[in-house]
Input
Amino acid sequence: MEKKRLLLIGPPGSGKGTQSALICQAHSLLHLSTGDLLRAEVTANSPLGQQAAEVMNRGELVSDGLVLAIVQEKLKNHVGGWILDGFPRNVVQARSLANLLEQLHQPLDAVVFLDLTDDELISRLLARGRADDNEAVIRHRLDVYREKTAPLINHYLKKGLLMTVEALGTIDEINSRIEDILN
Ligand code: AP5
Output
């Protein structure tokens, strides 16, 4: 696979984490999930985690500066490819990422957008039952996604980087679709 610096974007429950893990494992890429990194801080009860927990449980976005610092720290000493899962989450974060990648001389190769209907993603998340997976919070996460994250689809489309994948089907089927478009 030639494309080694990737973003996976999509609504909550579209399979970003599941598919990122599979592709990273298959191609020895670093999987950077800002959601997972924030949840690890919450579990450790660190000052950062205490700051993030309440915001995450409400389904809001934590501050741009905080997540950018986490991503910067992980990418600056990394040699090799990576997938960013759950970052960027808005246009400000996308611009910050572009600046960071320019400084690091690591251009983005592609942005994979996982496209899924609301009904399917809500049922997946209710079945999982994470702290932020109750129906009211899921609906709010979806509103936040539409308002703040969905504009990134057009942002990366204009840059010629966007690749859309239909995210309905089994995990293996979706994985094959992603592998196909990245090859
Ligand atoms: P984050 O952890 O990124 O959550 P999310 O975007 O809401 O995404 P999910 O993890 O719910 O879904 P996913 O698309 O990864 O799907 P998954 O593979 O898990 O963020 C959580 C919070 O952290 C945010 O709300 C925010 O507060 C904060 N945050 C994170 N990043 C931030 C940022 N950059 N800026 C600011 N704040 C940030 O799959 C979901 C479920 O479906 C699983 O149970 C899975 O097993 C199942 N599943 C997956 N694929 C399939 C399939 N094909 N068929 C059936 N089930 C499937």
About this structure: The mean pLDDT is 96.
